[in-house]
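Limitations
The structure tokens in this dataset are predictions for the assembled complex, not deposited experimental models. Users should treat interface geometry with appropriate caution, especially where small molecules or nucleic acid strands are included. An illustrative entry is reproduced here so readers can see what is and is not provided.
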Amino acid sequence: MKQQRINRRHSGVSLVELLVVMSAATVILTLSTGLIHRIMHAQTKARWLADVERTTLRLSNDVRRDVHLATQATTDKSQLGNGSFLRLQLADGNTLEYRREETTIQRIQLDGSRTIAREEFAFGQEFELEANLEEGRLVVLSVTSRGHRNRNNSDEPSRIADEIPVDLQVVAALGRGGSK
Amino acid sequence: MSQLWNSRRGGASSLECVMAFTLLSSVLAFAAPLLVKHRRLVNSQREYRLALDEVSNQLERLTSLPGGEVEQAVEQLQLSEFAAARLPEAKLQRELRPADKGRQVTLSLTWEQPTAAPVVLTGWIFPDRAEVAATAERGGQP
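Predicted assembly:
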């Protein structure tokens, strides 16, 4: 009889025990949810970074190599059309044009007016672009994310694109790929 | 009777709760530093590529100069505004020394990074024809 009474006393949980367990569970779940969210964000960011860096490196290598092979460069927008910002005249008579789209840069190889090759560099975000010819022999190309620096101070929610901006500056000298 | 009740219980003991709490806390404590390290790795990778671009650009400027202007240009060499704005505490060091043919210029860029080695690139500046002719007239080595 006494044993049964003791067992009955332990057949449930008190309100305090329940509250303690629920509080602990809530804390753990909140932390876990936050962690999972951050891990997913980190994964997306890593993928974005890899894309941007790969594209940037490819563009940098292509521009440097093309300028080295070129004999003449034009960066004056009044002489260029179709969104072009850089035209390179190659020694074999072909022309290379770098054109800007909304979030991409296109490298187009032309034989006269006929397109013979096209390559695209997609950044997935809007960017600012500047191409100059310094001292008649150095081509300077800068690609930076649009408004990235200003957006850092604003209250707008941050996007992955804002956290991993495009930053590239290439300086290349004309005509170094040949005889020199 | 007591054994029968224990086998049918539907709740968790305090010990089980404490164990679960400890395990989850361990996972959280292990994962949080990984996220911080991931952020550092992302920044480090970007900064390394920017540093490499900057040194390549500076070397491109130097090696495309006429031979007579190189020495002065090396002395006046400065980090570009573009790189200075993106690489914290960046410092560019340069060294110009004679090589077998022409001269050898070595650029080294360091910035605020606790582990990675500095970016070092070396270029060779060969004497142009006028310089070679002038040196030959003087009877010296190019």
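Some entries come with short summary sentences. For this one: Residues 15-69 of chain A form the longest helix (55 residues).
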